[in-house]
Amino acid sequence: MSELFVHGIGAVSPAGWGVSALRASLKSAAALPAKKLPRPGGKTLQVRVVPPPSLKLPFFANPRLRRTSGISQFAVAAALEALGEARSPRLGIVLCVMTGGVAYSRRFYDETLRDPTTASPVVFPETVFNAPASHLAALLGAGGINYTLVGDPGTFLQGLALAAEWLQNDLADACLVVGADEADWTTASAFRLFSRQAVLAEGAGAICLCREPPAQSAIAMRAITDSQLFFDAASRREAARRVRAELPASDRAELLCDSATGVAKFDAAERDAWKDWPGTRLSPKRFLGEGLMAGAAWQCVVAVDAVRLGLYPAAVVPVTGCNHQAIGARFEGRITPSLRDAGAGRGQGRGEIS
Amino acid sequence: MLFPCSRHQPRASQVVVTGAGIVTALGMGWRPNAEGFRQGRTAFRPVTLFDVSRQRAKLAAEVDLPDEIAGTRLGSRAQRRLDRAAKLLLIAAVEAWQQAGWTADKPLPIVLGTTSGGMRMGEDFYRQAAREPACARRQASRVLQYQPQRQGLDLAKALNIRGPQTIIANACASGANAIGHAWHLIRHGQAERVLTGGYDALNQLVFSGFDSLQALSPTECRPFDARRDGLALGEGAAVLALESLDSARRRSAEILGEICGYSSATDVHHLTQPHPDGNAALATMRGACEAAGVQPEQIGYINAHGTGTPLNDSAEAAAIARWANGAAANMPISSTKAGVGHLLGAAGAVEAVVCLMALREQWLPPMRSVESPDAACAFPLVREPTEARFDYALSNSFGFGGVNASLVLRRWA
Predict the structure, then answer these.
(1) How many helices (H) and strands (E) does chain B have?
(2) Is the pLDDT at B365 greater than 80, yes or no?
(3) A109 to chain B: which residues are within 8 Å by CB?
(4) Backbone angles phi, psi at A211, to 5 degrees
(5) Is residue A344 pLDDT above 70, yes or no?
(6) Nearest by Cα to A308 from A16, A14, A19
(7) Is the N-terminal amide bond of B4 cis, ω within 30° of 0?
(8) Among A44, B3, B126, B215, which lies 20 to 30 A Cα-Cα from B342?
(9) Percent of chain B with pLDDT over 90
(10) DSSP secondary structure string for all residues of A71-137
């Protein structure tokens, strides 16, 4: 099997709930405003949080989701958008997280330090990495295979490859791959230890993969490179180069949707590897913030969306993670005439880096 | 390429174990653990790693770690920086690596399971960030060390391994899922060898979490006992060197056993409670046996998930009775959590190694703490050290979030 197809995409980001909000935000090419998050000691940290939804989303009423933290709500919303009306009795779920349910973990541990006899038993289960995947499975009644992967943002692409494996080996008929993380003062202050410029963000992105192309359009996932581990700055640079070398050569009509954040020291490795990219370059995290696993998912969602709209024939997504791996993906379009007509034109340079 | 997958290996008809490393509170390595599990020793003692004075439960199965881990490329300074979880993982990995006789000449996938990674470092980070927010001393190192990918990278560095790493955090089924995923990679020709396993260290957040749920036993862990009142926590790691039978034979490696079946499913009943009938457990036991091509009556021993909580054990007992039907009456079952506690992300991997030991040396690990078996048990519980002749063992792992996984292992004769 040399290609699999994207059935749908979903996103929750500081731009709002849904892919259309993400698209509109990137089209404006302006960085979203950051919110001040208080932390102990009276200081504040800058983060880009997900705004409240404009309408009450129906799944919030589900008993399993009533007490969940942001990460579960983001993951579920993005996944449901990607899935659309489709339901499969053999749905595989891959959730990818970097920091996971950190808000409830911080809250529960704080309660433990104050007095363990009053630490909330309701909060603790939500601290487990796979809690969002469990809620999603319960909501969909999906009793099949369900893994939560942990790592740096490159893990989202590993998740896509894992889903491909399940589809190829007939462990599932469709697979939801969700990348999600939530912002908290603990992660924001941790991030600040490595850069004072980086702005942490939260949200989720989801891609639903299937074996057959959907009726209207077909976006094919054509490649996920090997995962290139790195241990330091030098090996990170080399890992980014290897990802570039492994992906097929592209022409200038294609889109590069990279993981640049606007922080020079974070971006150097990938910038170096892709310095001679001939076409359009889009860096969603420059506008949305460092969304960790959600950030890598947004890159893929934006890339697929651009190809789906006929703006580009193909898109390449390199993810050079924070502290684990570099990896890349390639998506190609098989666009029907009706969708091409509806597209807003090619290569409009949304958020391009000059 | 991870996709499209370059199947440079032929699909493997059989996946064998050529190295196994284990560390639990019973000791470090195959021999002390085999002796301990065979005798049904228990390893619980008062918790010393953090304050439990205001918790209901006071005991856990702590591991005595050595000052230095031999057989790695990490120097003393690098080892001192390691989180407790990373040390547990390294000890088990070095044993498996050396036993397998592998060399780092080609890329080797690593698949690990954990629930908490280096959470103890995360706790240190939080306490300092909350109490001394202006002090950044050692905080950056803690941020890096607490993340699960760091333990994977430490392992790669220690043994000079190149290759992709997959870290599965499926709660208490993580270790079994990791082995199952590695098994899939070899079965489907995506890898010839995989280093896989699970690890977790005791930490305050998780201990307090289980205590808050009143899931920890304030007395003694007694899986499947009518008077059971909860689980006991432990820590440890187990790592398996898995490879295709062809690969093992080519290099005349000693084969410790075979992983011949695996299945995973999700129980959507509740975040922390299993469906009372054990539907997902039934699905995974069926699926794993189907993959292995064996019938329930061929299974000579089940290493149950058997946490010792009232709800888990009754659901698992119901599932086993439904799955095995009449065969359950002759199917010896025990839970080694009675001896070393619930090792969370390490549990599935440690219990797979216990099954390998039992198959290889032909004994059944007893649960000495069980006095009055629950009437729901339609199967015999192993309560005394027992010799046995059997060829197949099944290991169950169930976790928060409803993740269920079963592995079938075969004696290599």
Answers:
(1) 13, 15
(2) yes
(3) 123, 126, 204-205, 208
(4) -80, -35
(5) no
(6) A19
(7) yes
(8) B126
(9) 95
(10) HHHHHHHHHHHHHTT---TTEEEEEEESS-SHHHHHHHHHHHHH-GGG--TTTGGGGSTTHHHHHHH
Q: What is the ipTM of this complex?
A: 0.98
Single out the catalytic residue among B181, B275, B289, B305: B305
Task: Provide the pLDDT confidence category of residue A214 given band limits of 50, 70 and 90.
Answer: confident
Where do the H-state alpha helices sit in B116-173?
Answer: 119-131, 139-146, 148-159
Phi, psi dihedrals of residue B302, rounded to the nearest 5°: -115, 125
**Are B170 and A105 an interchain contact pair (Cβ–Cβ within 8 Å)?**
no
Task: Tell me if residue B8 is catalytic.
Answer: no
Cβ(B274)–Cβ(B311) below 8 Å: yes
B206 to chain A: closest CA residue: A124
Å between B353 CA and nearest CA of chain A: 22
Question: Residues B174-186: pLDDT tens digits?
Answer: 999 999 999 999 9
Assess whether pLDDT exceeds 50 at residue A257. yes
Cα separation, A205 vs A299, in Å, equals: 9
pLDDT digits (tens, 9 = 90+) for A36-69: 999 999 889 999 999 999 888 888 889 899 889 9
Structure-block tokens of residue B398: 């169930």
pLDDT (0 to 100) of residue A297: 98
User: For chain B, how long is the longest CA-to-CA vector?
Assistant: 66
Give the CATH fold of the A4-210 domain. Answer: Peroxisomal Thiolase; Chain A, domain 1 (3.40.47)
Supply angle C-alpha B175, B178, B181, rounded to 5.
150
Q: What is the pLDDT of residues B60-101, one digit of tens each?
A: 999 999 999 999 999 999 999 999 999 999 999 999 999 999
Roughly what angle, to the nearest 10 degrees, separates helices B119-131 and A185-192? Answer: 90
- Where is A20: in which H helix or E strand? helix A19-28
- The predicted pLDDT at position A2 comes to 83
Q: Do A147 and B181 touch (CB under 8 A)?
A: yes
10 Å CB burial of residue A43 (0-12, 13-18, 19+) is: middle
pLDDT for A60: 87
- pLDDT greater than 80 at residue B7: no
**Residues B195/B93, Cβ–Cβ less than 8 Å:** yes
What stretch(es) of chain B map to CATH 3.40.47.10? 15-250, 261-410
User: Do B123 and A109 count as a contact with CB atoms less than 8 A apart?
Assistant: yes
CATH class of the domain at B261-410: alpha beta
Does B15-250 carry CATH code 3.40.47.10?
A: yes
- Quote the tokens at residue A115: 């007095």
Q: Which residues of A touch B179 (CB under 8 A)?
A: none
Give me B61's structure tokens: 């199965």
Contact (Cβ atoms closer than 8 angstroms) between residue A80 and residue A73: no
Q: Is 80 exceeded by the pLDDT of residue A287?
A: yes
Phi, psi (degrees; rounded to nearest 5) at A90 = -115, 65
Q: For domain A218-342, say whether CATH 3.40.47.10 is its number.
A: yes
- Using the predicted structure, report yes or no on whether residue A151 has a pLDDT greater than 80: yes
Nearest CB to B165; choose among A39, A97, A229? A229
Q: Which A residues in the span 260-319 are in contact with B, Cβ-Cβ below 8 Å?
A: none
**Assigned token pair, B164:** 């992709």
Residue A215 pLDDT: 76
- Specify the amino acid at residue A220: A
Report the Cα B60 to chain-centroid distance in Å. 17
Task: List own/partner pairs for B189-192 with CB under 8 A and 24 or more apart.
Answer: B189/B7, B189/B8, B189/B9, B189/B10, B189/B11, B189/B12, B190/A165, B190/B5, B190/B7, B190/B9, B191/B9, B191/B108, B191/B109, B192/B9, B192/B12, B192/B243, B192/B244, B192/B247
What are the φ and ψ backbone dihedral angles of B22, each rounded to 5 degrees? -150, 140
Residues of chain A with CATH 3.40.47.10: 4-210, 218-342
For residue A339, is pLDDT > 90? no
